């Protein structure tokens, strides 16, 4: 990504044109630049930048090794494939709910319920993890959040 694209993004978030953006906007800013930081990574970055960050800081953060959606997609697919001993390409809904609510940057029950509204479950309770990962990485319509 070019410096001018990073500067343009920074300008969108610098609503009052004072050369500073609230640390609370860091995640949205990085995601709009094609990065996919975890919540833990974001909290660490916010601790480093304090209450606000400037354009130079954003450029520095952008150049850090933060995962992209493509990295995330590969990692997620690899994890699901490791769980799929039979190689069918499906995970049971109950198992997916448990994984989402207990591992990594886990989701609350309400967040899992909201996400599952958008997931196709077959008659055997299975979910195609390839479609699920694609939905997560490429965005999904939020029904009522």
TrEMBL record:
<protein>
    <recommendedName>
        <fullName>EF-hand domain-containing protein</fullName>
    </recommendedName>
</protein>
<keyword id="KW-0677">Repeat</keyword>
<dbReference type="GO" id="GO:0005509">
    <property type="term" value="F:calcium ion binding"/>
</dbReference>
<feature type="domain" description="EF-hand">
    <location>
        <begin position="71"/>
        <end position="106"/>
    </location>
</feature>
<dbReference type="InterPro" id="IPR050230">
    <property type="entry name" value="CALM/Myosin/TropC-like"/>
</dbReference>
<dbReference type="InterPro" id="IPR011992">
    <property type="entry name" value="EF-hand-dom_pair"/>
</dbReference>
<dbReference type="Pfam" id="PF13405">
    <property type="entry name" value="EF-hand_6"/>
</dbReference>
<keyword id="KW-0518">Myosin</keyword>
<dbReference type="InterPro" id="IPR002048">
    <property type="entry name" value="EF_hand_dom"/>
</dbReference>
<dbReference type="GO" id="GO:0016460">
    <property type="term" value="C:myosin II complex"/>
</dbReference>
<dbReference type="Pfam" id="PF13499">
    <property type="entry name" value="EF-hand_7"/>
</dbReference>
<feature type="domain" description="EF-hand">
    <location>
        <begin position="1"/>
        <end position="36"/>
    </location>
</feature>
<feature type="domain" description="EF-hand">
    <location>
        <begin position="107"/>
        <end position="142"/>
    </location>
</feature>
<keyword id="KW-0505">Motor protein</keyword>
């Amino acid at each position: 990504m070019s410096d001018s694209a990073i500067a343009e993004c920074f300008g969108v978030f610098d609503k009052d044109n004072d050369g500073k953006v609230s640390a609370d906007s860091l995640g949205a800013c990085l995601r709009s630049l094609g990065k996919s930081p975890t919540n833990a990574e974001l909290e660490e970055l916010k601790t480093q930048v304090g209450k606000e960050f400037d354009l130079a800081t954003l450029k520095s953060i952008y150049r850090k090794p933060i995962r992209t959606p493509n990295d995330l997609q590969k990692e997620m697919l690899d994890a699901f494939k490791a769980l799929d001993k039979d190689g069918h390409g499906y995970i049971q809904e109950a198992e997916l709910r448990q994984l989402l609510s207990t591992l990594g940057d886990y989701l609350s029950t309400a967040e899992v319920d909201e996400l599952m509204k958008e997931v196709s479950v077959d008659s055997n309770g299975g979910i195609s993890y390839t479609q699920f990962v694609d939905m997560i990485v490429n965005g999904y319509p939020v029904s009522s959040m």
